[in-house]
């Protein structure tokens, strides 16, 4: 049996979730299964494939890899939450047939050209698989609800606001009993698409405070506590005292989440509020026929829109030298984008399903994957 892998990682809670998802999926009939895997015949594929990328996608990918075995039982898919940077790196190197990233490929560091070369000279497929809010998680003594303006949020993570009872925080939290205590701001220590999206928001909305621009690696001059991966940030905030951090909302667990100022209101990180951002955002200027990539409108004042989101993307090649790889990539991405796959991600990971029109566009791109 063929195995495609660079490294292995243990996903927490996979066994328990696998049992639950298998029970939910067992009722699928063959016809529905084929529709969910891009027309590839159900049960026709086999092999072990290790893919990976953004750790924020872990919960959704556990659901998808498990659900996929219901329609292709001889295929074992394993997702490694190595971070967006690691996912792109392994995809470019040929270790992953597909990869997950929380930001689309650019040539700022030559990644787009390198991925094009990996795909035999064709620009890689880049399609959204879901939209998810990046929650500002906090664990502050005596505080259950927190409203933060963009300017205040930027100043906290830039290290300019260091006390919880700072006047800028108190101004938007009149009813909160803010402690006279230092702020423990937690950030990702690894290269991260979540960090990239979070800092992109800060650079657009509060450029006078957040001066580092959009970065996937945290700038050391802003200090704070670093933690590895999404789970590391969540653990650091959970176990820390008077801590605040940022993480994919699907993995925030029981932590409190802040409401962020949008126009005249403060909006929480619900899937519905996050999904609204794509409705007001344009596609990226360099998007080609095989790319559905977006430049998010962080300046929106649209009511009910949560502005700090990541659009999770899947990367693939338009064609593969190996027919089996082409079939598995096509089938797996089609499953992710199917109604069943989108429902799994929403229920198990708290993500916002793609709008019907966007889902159809992405599926049409995946349908073109071939071998040759």
List the main descriptive attributes of the protein structure presented here:
single chain; 372 residues; alpha/beta; D-Maltodextrin-Binding Protein, domain 2; ten-stranded mixed β-sheet; 15 strands; 36% helix; 19% strand; disordered N terminus; transport; PBP_domain; ABC_phos-bd_PstS
List the helices and strands and how they pair.
Layout: E1 3-4, H1 14-25, H2 30-36, E2 47-53, H3 58-71, E3 75-80, H4 84-93, E4 99-101, H5 111-118, E5 125-139, E6 147-148, H6 150-157, H7 167-171, E7 184-188, H8 193-205, E8 225-227, H9 229-239, E9 243-248, E10 256-257, E11 259-262, E12 265-267, H10 271-279, E13 309-316, E14 319-320, H11 323-337, H12 339-349, H13 356-366, E15 370-371
Parallel strand pairs: 1-2, 2-3, 2-4, 6-11, 7-8, 7-9, 14-15
Antiparallel strand pairs: 4-13, 5-9, 5-10, 5-13, 11-12
Helix pairs in contact: 1-3, 3-12, 4-5, 11-13
Summarize the model shown.
This protein is α/β, with parallel strands linked by helices. The chain has 13 helices and 15 strands. The protein has two domains: 3-132 and 312-371, Periplasmic binding protein-like II (D-Maltodextrin-Binding Protein, domain 2); 133-278, 3-Layer(aba) Sandwich (D-Maltodextrin-Binding Protein, domain 2).
Radius of gyration: 20 Å
Whole-number average pLDDT? Answer: 89
Give the CATH superfamily of the largest domain: Periplasmic binding protein-like II
Q: CATH topology of the largest domain, which one?
A: D-Maltodextrin-Binding Protein, domain 2
Structural class: alpha/beta
Shape field: elongated
Alpha plus pi helix count? 13
Helix content: 25-40%
Order of helices and strands: EHHEHEHEHEEHHEHEHEEEEHEEHHHE
Q: Tell me the major beta sheet.
A: 10 strands, mixed
Number of strands: 15
Alpha-carbon distance between the termini? Answer: 22 Å
Tally of structural domains? 2
CATH class categorisation of the largest domain: Alpha Beta
Q: Which second-level CATH architecture of the largest domain applies?
A: 3-Layer(aba) Sandwich
Proportion of residues in β-strands: 15-25%
- Stretches with pLDDT under 50, minimum 5 residues: 1-31
């Amino acid at each position: 049996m063929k195995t495609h892998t660079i490294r292995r990682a243990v996903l927490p809670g996979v066994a328990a979730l696998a049992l639950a998802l298998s029970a939910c999926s067992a009722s699928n009939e063959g016809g529905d299964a084929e529709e969910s895997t891009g027309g590839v015949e159900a049960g026709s594929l086999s092999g072990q494939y290790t893919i990976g990328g953004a750790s924020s996608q872990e919960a959704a990918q556990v659901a998808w890899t498990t659900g996929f075995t219901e329609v292709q039982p001889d295929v074992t898919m394993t997702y490694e939450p190595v971070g967006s940077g690691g996912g792109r790196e392994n995809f470019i190197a040929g270790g992953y047939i597909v990869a997950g990233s929380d930001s689309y490929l650019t040539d700022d560091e030559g990644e787009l050209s390198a991925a094009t070369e990996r795909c035999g000279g064709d620009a890689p497929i880049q399609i959204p698989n879901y939209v998810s809010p990046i929650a500002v998680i906090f664990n502050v003594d005596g505080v259950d609800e927190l409203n933060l303006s963009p300017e205040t949020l930027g100043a906290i993570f830039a290290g300019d606001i260091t006390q919880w009872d700072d006047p800028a925080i108190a101004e938007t939290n009149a009813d909160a009993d803010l402690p006279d205590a230092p702020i423990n701001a937690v950030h990702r220590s690894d290269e991260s698409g979540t960090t990239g999206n979070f800092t992109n928001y800060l650079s657009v909305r509060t450029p006078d405070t957040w001066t580092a621009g959009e970065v996937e690696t945290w700038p050391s001059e802003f200090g704070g506590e670093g933690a590895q991966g999404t789970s590391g940030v969540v653990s650091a905030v959970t176990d820390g005292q008077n801590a605040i951090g940022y993480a994919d909302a699907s993995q925030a667990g029981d932590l409190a989440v802040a409401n962020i100022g949008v126009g005249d209101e403060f909006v929480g990180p619900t899937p519905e509020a996050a999904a609204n951002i794509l409705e007001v955002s344009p596609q990226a200027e360099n998007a080609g026929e095989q790319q559905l990539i977006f430049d998010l409108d962080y300046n929106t004042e649209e009511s009910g829109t949560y502005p700090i989101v990541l659009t999770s993307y899947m990367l693939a090649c338009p064609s593969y030298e190996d027919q089996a790889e082409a079939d598995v990539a096509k089938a797996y991405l089609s499953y992710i984008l199917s109604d069943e796959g989108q429902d799994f991600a929403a229920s198990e990971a708290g993500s916002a399903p793609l709008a019907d029109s966007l889902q159809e566009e992405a599926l049409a791109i995946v349908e073109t994957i071939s071998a040759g």
